[in-house]
Amino acid sequence: QGPPPVTRYDLNKVTVTPDPIKNQEHILVLTPMARFYQEYWDNLLRLSYPHELITLGFILPKTKEGNQATAALQQQIQKIQNHGAEKDRFKSIIILRQDFDPAVVSQDESERHKLGNQKARREIMAKARNSLLFTTLGPATSWVLWLDADIVESPPTLIQDLASHDKPVIVANCYQKYYDPETKKMAERPYDFNSWQDSETALKMAEQMGPDDILLEGYAELATYRTLMAYMSNPGSPKDLAVPLDGVGSTALLVKADVHRDGAMFPAFSFYHLIESEGFAKMAKRLGWQPYGLPNYKVYHYNE
Ligand code: GDP
Ligand code: MN
Fold first, then answer.
1. For the chain, domain boundaries
2. Which of 57, 121, 207, 300 has the fewest CB atoms found within 10 Å of its own CB?
3. Whole-number Å distance between alpha carbons of 62 and 100
4. Superfamily of segment(s) 11-301
5. What is the DSSP letter of 5?
6. Has residue 35 got a pLDDT over 80?
7. CA 43 and chain centroid, separation
């Protein structure tokens, strides 16, 4: 009996290509989850990327709501992994419970989005994403798809479509459907304002801030005059238009695993006065990986 065998992984053989299905590339789909939405799960199941190449990773807070969400999630996982059709089953699924405080007591949209709650909230979100990433990224992972638990509609070809651009970091445009009482019809509006191109104003504001202060997007009190991808959507321009970005949101964000392996993560502190996913974009860029966004490629956020 010799020593236990050493498992060798040759990272050079883990390809990351614009045709990931043909090359059988492994995808890690990561979701921090405060609430379980059936619509999110159903949309996830509709992803047409071969499920046997997908590992799912979740992190949930240890609150009452987090416990409920974990139970609901586990029930759906059981259904698919134990009783679902072979082609619907995922390669593996990992659930983590967060060992630190949840983002805020209330998960209601108005409370979540209050400016005063943002820094603490984004710090916790950053830590949750990092915990999830660092415990699940494997030697065979080619891509990481960050997909929020409240993305309830996306094209089934989401992974292939994003990967086809062959960008180190690429984000879809996150909108929200709502009922417009004036037209009495369903309409849609931008939801995620974290994907943007920087402005002179924002850079000047950052220059004057204290070392721990952060800039936040989408608040009148902090007018940054950045160019927001949310407003770049235009039916007249091609669906596959890709624009370079300085900040990204992580509602539906595809990252080449090597970007994370190089050390790009979600800072839970002021990094160039940016935090979490926006800080991640900056860190990727500092490591030489330019983030991009797709203004005309939409995914939809749950409407509370
Ligand atoms: P918003 O859409 O910008 O308001 O942000 P969300 O509240 O939707 O948070 C982004 C993602 O993180 C969603 O998938 C949430 O379910 C999840 N989330 C929110 N708070 C927490 C938390 O305290 N812990 C964990 N693990 N996930 C959270
Ligand atoms: Mn959300």
1. 11-301
2. 207
3. 8
4. Spore Coat Polysaccharide Biosynthesis Protein SpsA; Chain A (3.90.550.10)
5. P
6. yes
7. 15
Residue pair 61/100 in contact by the 8 Å Cβ criterion: no
CA angle 90, 96, 100 (to 5 degrees): 160
Establish whether residue 132 lines the binding site of ligand 1, counting it when its CB lies within 6 angstroms of any ligand atom: no
Distance CA 173, CA 218 (A): 15
All residues at 6 or more sequence positions from 252 whose CB lies less than 8 Å from its CB, including other chains: 145, 146, 147, 148, 151, 154, 158, 162, 171, 172, 174, 299
Question: 270 phi and psi, to 5 degrees?
Answer: -70, 110
**pLDDT tens track for 65-124:** 999 999 999 999 999 999 999 999 999 999 999 987 776 656 678 888 887 788 999 999
Mutate to test the pocket of ligand 1, among 60, 104, 109, 125 (most ligand atoms within 8 A of CB): 125
Quote the tokens at residue 52: 């046997």
Q: How far apart are CA 116 and CA 114, in angstroms?
A: 5
Extract the tokens encoding 57: 């990773």
Q: Tell me how far apart the alpha carbons of residues 25 and 48 are, in angstroms, rounded to a whole number.
A: 14
Measured CA to CA, the distance from residue 215 to residue 209 in angstroms comes to 9
Query: Which of 29, 30, 33, 276 should be mutated for ligand 1, with most atoms under 8 A from CB?
Result: 33
List the end-to-end C-alpha distance of the chain, in Å, as a whole number: 60
Q: From the CB of 148, is ligand 1 less than 6 Å away?
A: yes
Dihedrals φ, ψ of 285, to 5°? -60, -40
- How far is the CA of 196 from the CAs of 82, 227, 243, 281, in angstroms? 42, 5, 10, 10
ipTM over 0.90: yes
User: Is the pLDDT higher at 118 or at 134?
Assistant: 134
Residue type, 126: A
8 A C-beta contact, residue 211 and residue 218? no
